[in-house]
Amino acid sequence: MVAGRAHGPRMTNPSRLPSRTTHSGSSLVGAPPGRAALQRHVLEVQRRVRTCTGCGLCCTQAYNSQAILPWEAARIAAYLRRLPDARREELLGRARRAVSRWKLARAGHRLVQYTCSFLQPDLTCALPLEAKPVACLSFNPLTPDACDQEPEWFERAGAEVETANRAAGLPAVRRPIPLAVLLAAGDGREAGPRAGRGRRRPPR
After folding, report:
1. Helices 177-184 and 85-101: crossing angle, nearest 10°?
2. Cα–Cα distances in angstroms (integers) from residue 114 to residues 48, 52, 66, 95, in the given order
3. How many CB atoms lie within 10 A of CB 84?
4. Measured between alpha carbons, how far is 70 from 199 in angstroms, rounded to an integer?
5. Closest CA to 154 of 132, 123, 176, 177
6. Residue 135 and residue 123: Cα distance in Å, rounded?
7. Would the pLDDT of 13 be above 80?
């Protein structure tokens, strides 16, 4: 089951909009089989159906309630650590503002709709293919003018995340992406007094 989802709007004139997905030739190296298959599927969808158009709607408060486990948050935090200091602080700053604006630290176990802090002003995603959560990767164009979640693609990759999360001894608590990433990055300034309680340090 997808924990948090973006309900896909119908979109027209996709050729006028930029692609949202970025990727590198090494994005599949070291990826677990389910995630590697999902990433290949995303690239095939973009080739066969169309690219993600960059409307950004699935990442906004109108549709998005994605919540991720600490293991995936640690993957994103590891990517951020490889960025230049200024860019990393910019993205962490956006995450802090999102947590504050959408009151994500107070969500508890409720799914909260919010605009993802990694959605950039030009409506592209700040995360490359290899750093994106599997729930985001499994939300794709199904036809030239409609997008939706693909649970069958999420299930295998999502199970790998759950297994890795357990193996690392991390809590099985799903949190909104900006909050989860701040906690994984060791930045609790906007996480709230309860959000980080009982948290172990995520793997590097």
Report:
1. 130
2. 30, 20, 9, 11
3. 8
4. 9
5. 132
6. 18
7. no
Query: Tokens 């994106």 identify what position?
Result: 132
44: helix, strand or coil: helix
Closest CA to 72 of 118, 13, 121, 103: 118
Between 31 and 87, name the one with better pLDDT: 87
3-state secondary structure of 68: strand
Cβ(124)–Cβ(18) below 8 Å: yes
Rounded CA-CA distance 166/168 in Å is 5
Written as six digits, the tokens of 162 are 């759950």
Spatial distance between the Cα atoms of 68 and 4, rounded to a whole number of angstroms: 8
Beta bridge partners of 67: 176
Q: Residue 140 and residue 188: Cα distance in Å, rounded?
A: 32
Q: What share of the chain is helix, strand, coil (3-state, %, to 5)?
A: 40, 10, 50
Contact between 140 and 38 (Cβ < 8 Å): no
pTM score of the predicted model: 0.79
Return mean pLDDT, the chain: 81
Q: Please report, for residues 28, 65, 171, 192, 202, the alpha-carbon distance to residue 116 in angstroms, rounded to integers and kept in the order given.
A: 24, 9, 22, 18, 21
The 3-state DSSP class for residue 51 equals: coil
Is the model's pLDDT at 99 over the cut of 60?
yes
